[in-house]
Amino acid sequence: MMKSLFGKIFLWFWLTSILLTVASVFIAVFLTGTPVLRQWASNFGDLYSRNVVQSYLLGGDAGLDQFLTSTEQAREIQTTLFGPDGERIRGGALTPFQQGLLEEARASGRTECRIRLAWQCAAVVDTPRGKFVVVGRALHPRRMVRQLPLSAVLTRAMLILLFASGLCFALARYIARPVEVLQHATRRIAAGDLSARAAPALAPRKDELVSLAEEFDVMAARIEALMQSQRQMLGDISHELRSPLTRLRVALELAEGGDAEAMKRMNADLQKLEQLIEQVLTLNRLDAGEKWVELQSTNLETVLSEVVRDANYEGRARNVSVELKAEPLTIKANPALLKSCVENIVRNALRYSPDNGRVEVEERAVSDSTGRVGHPQWVEIRVRDHGPGVPPEALPRLFEPFYRVAESRSEKSGGRGLGLSIAQRAAAVHGGTVEAKNREGGGLEVLVKLPVRS
């Protein structure tokens, strides 16, 4: 048990409670004296004083000397007896402290006791011959302690110890349980169960350990999502590679049979394979961060103009135009990566625009998050189309690799679900963000927000 956190916490609590109990008893008995002990000492002093006076009244000086001698030898109690007239019958001179006890006893008419390192009492004994006063002092307090009712003391001590042990157990369990829950969840994740969570098992609690468990669950959920995304990506890549390879195999057989169109089909499928591999490699490099990215002063209007020019050429077949509204602005960026970011978004808008439609690209500088224009801190690039838009439940997943809103529509349009993922990661490498929302009246608007670095 000592190797576990629970065992260590329990042992420390248990030892601390025992030490506190012992210290409390020591202070109570030897330094202050509790009401129970003072009452016991008063009763003992009253009984002892009556025996002293009785011995004197029945046996005189000889009887008193015999009683006190035996008592001092057995219990080591120093005794002084005063007669009704105040004369000292037996014993030595009193200390100032004992003199104070004597005066208090005479004034109150009852036994007065003080418990310090030594127990001292002054008792008034009323007899037919008058009031005698006995002052006693325990020479060795430990002998007086031995006269306490040990069975009752031990019983109470055991009850206190049992209560303290139960309380220590509960406290140690309360503190160590979150650690045990986290350990169990960690082992499950290590064994491959990525659905393991810790916070639900600690739901009633509200403390730092529960906050740690919640952070652990966030981490576990992120790992689970990444692993699922990785498995899905591998499956999607396999699917994307299988279709062109199958067509290549068929085209090769046709080419061997003398089909002249087979070579064109093979070339088109090879280009698709090359594009897919290039996109996957780009996505992988972007996920690695910005260590490989070199930033330089880039004219944003020039980059956007090139993208719009290429998009207009591509849209001529369906009579879809791309309009640009921009102003000269220089930012710190990687030109090729920035062009890839905007180009993927524009091509996605072009792909889902209806025939004879229009795509709008707008660039503007803003000074802060409120959108006010001034000394530019951010640049916003908005790409709007007039297509069917995206279902609201699909918007959060729009930038996931290989995610396509409608499989059949994406295949018809030639999309593989990688363009928007590349755009988002390219913006992130530049310290920016990409967001998408449906427009009122139809269509999708994608907002790219990039910092203007000096």
From TrEMBL:
<dbReference type="Pfam" id="PF02518">
    <property type="entry name" value="HATPase_c"/>
</dbReference>
<feature type="transmembrane region" description="Helical">
    <location>
        <begin position="12"/>
        <end position="31"/>
    </location>
</feature>
<keyword id="KW-0418">Kinase</keyword>
<dbReference type="InterPro" id="IPR036890">
    <property type="entry name" value="HATPase_C_sf"/>
</dbReference>
<feature type="domain" description="Histidine kinase">
    <location>
        <begin position="236"/>
        <end position="454"/>
    </location>
</feature>
<keyword id="KW-0808">Transferase</keyword>
<keyword id="KW-0812">Transmembrane</keyword>
<keyword id="KW-1133">Transmembrane helix</keyword>
<dbReference type="InterPro" id="IPR036097">
    <property type="entry name" value="HisK_dim/P_sf"/>
</dbReference>
<dbReference type="InterPro" id="IPR003660">
    <property type="entry name" value="HAMP_dom"/>
</dbReference>
<dbReference type="InterPro" id="IPR050428">
    <property type="entry name" value="TCS_sensor_his_kinase"/>
</dbReference>
<dbReference type="Pfam" id="PF00672">
    <property type="entry name" value="HAMP"/>
</dbReference>
<protein>
    <recommendedName>
        <fullName>histidine kinase</fullName>
        <ecNumber>2.7.13.3</ecNumber>
    </recommendedName>
</protein>
<dbReference type="InterPro" id="IPR004358">
    <property type="entry name" value="Sig_transdc_His_kin-like_C"/>
</dbReference>
<dbReference type="InterPro" id="IPR005467">
    <property type="entry name" value="His_kinase_dom"/>
</dbReference>
<keyword id="KW-0597">Phosphoprotein</keyword>
<dbReference type="InterPro" id="IPR003594">
    <property type="entry name" value="HATPase_dom"/>
</dbReference>
<keyword id="KW-0902">Two-component regulatory system</keyword>
<dbReference type="Pfam" id="PF00512">
    <property type="entry name" value="HisKA"/>
</dbReference>
<dbReference type="GO" id="GO:0000155">
    <property type="term" value="F:phosphorelay sensor kinase activity"/>
</dbReference>
<feature type="transmembrane region" description="Helical">
    <location>
        <begin position="153"/>
        <end position="176"/>
    </location>
</feature>
<dbReference type="GO" id="GO:0005886">
    <property type="term" value="C:plasma membrane"/>
</dbReference>
<dbReference type="InterPro" id="IPR003661">
    <property type="entry name" value="HisK_dim/P_dom"/>
</dbReference>
<keyword id="KW-0472">Membrane</keyword>
<feature type="domain" description="HAMP">
    <location>
        <begin position="173"/>
        <end position="228"/>
    </location>
</feature>
